[in-house]
Amino acid sequence: EDMARSMGEALAARSVPEPPAGTPPEPSAPAEPGIAREPEPLPRGAAGLRLGGGALIPLGEAGDYFRAALRIEAAWLFPSARKARWVLAAGFTGFSLDGPDAPEAAADFFHVGFGAEYSLIRKKSIGLDLGILAGPALAYSRGEASSPVVKLLPFVQAGMAAGYRPFPRWELGLSAAVLVLLDYGESLLPLRPVLGLAPALTVTRELK
Questions:
Q1: Which of 59, 60, 122, 142 could form a disulfide with 148 if both were Cys (CB 3.0 to 4.6 A apart)?
Q2: pTM
Q3: d(Cα 160, Cα 36) in Å, to the nearest integer?
Q4: What is the pLDDT of residues 112-121, one digit of tens each?
Q5: Containing H/E element for 16?
């Protein structure tokens, strides 16, 4: 009996007692302190290339000289701030001067502009931007009954664009901008504004 009693006491001493119900667990050792870093602001988007094609629809008195024109544009995009990026664009517009107040002729515009875009909405797959672009446009017109005319005209355009991202670095967009082209006659003054609406479909490829 003494031997059985001593063996029971030894086994009881080796067993780990369970804490009573309702007793909170002992606090664990505190984790080593780390350095808290604030997330860096992300730019509007990576540098990329955009191609667009659409039309130039005359507004106001410009409708007396042409009906509509084909317009294409390529732009280089590079980030500026968290919700903005710079735009360097070049494009071509070709149309016919065949309105009631203009003789039959053809005209081509080659424009180069620098501007910026600001992001109003930027989600994972959709976006909405405001944009502005300004620069010079080389206008070349020619007709059967007149000699060719070459002019360098200033222009500015502002508008809005909506985009959808089917893939991480690809964006399909629909844009509309109001274009103001400042034309002149034999003398530089007065300048005559030529207004147009420029809708376009765009494809953007962001680069790494």
A1: 142
A2: 0.70
A3: 39
A4: 999 999 999 8
A5: none
